[in-house]
Specification:
about 140 residues, alpha/beta, five-stranded parallel β-sheet, 5 helices, 7 strands, about 45% helix, globular, disordered C terminus
């Protein structure tokens, strides 16, 4: 990707302010238009507005675990691609969430290699959503 490429909107939803800010800066520097939130209500509002094509969903919002939001999000916008970023889900829970429509599950990034893996997942998600970068 080159600077100036048109990228889709990436919603980063995480209650952890520092983690959210690090991912927002990382993806903004990669050329994505990033929207951040730490609220379940804002996630649902952005889902209704259908501006974001991909969401990185992590943690718990207003005492609602991210895993509980996924079926609601998918009912509101089944085309929204969800990447769950969590260290807390069990393998059976991940399987259940995959059946409900998550695109990818990633562990919370702790180093540059983890961020690159997440970046590849986001690139693939945008490509599948039809929001891949357009080169001129």
């Amino acid at each position: 990707m080159e600077r100036g490429d048109v990228m889709g909107v990436l919603l980063i939803a995480d209650r952890d302010k520092d983690g959210r800010k690090q991912l927002a800066d990382f993806f903004a520097n990669a050329g994505y238009q990033v929207v951040e939130t730490d609220s379940a209500a804002q996630v649902l509002l952005d889902t209704f507005k259908k501006e974001a094509q991909v969401v990185l969903l992590s943690g718990e919002f207003d005492e609602i675990p991210a895993a509980d939001l996924i079926p609601i999000i998918k009912k509101c916008n089944r085309h929204l691609t969800i990447i769950l970023v969590s260290n807390e889900e069990s393998l059976p829970q991940i399987r259940k969430l995959r059946s409900e429509g998550i695109f990818y599950h990633a562990l919370k990034p702790v180093n540059a290699a983890d961020k690159e893996e997440l970046k590849l997942a986001v690139q693939c998600a945008f490509a599948n959503a039809g929001g891949a970068p357009r080169h001129t």
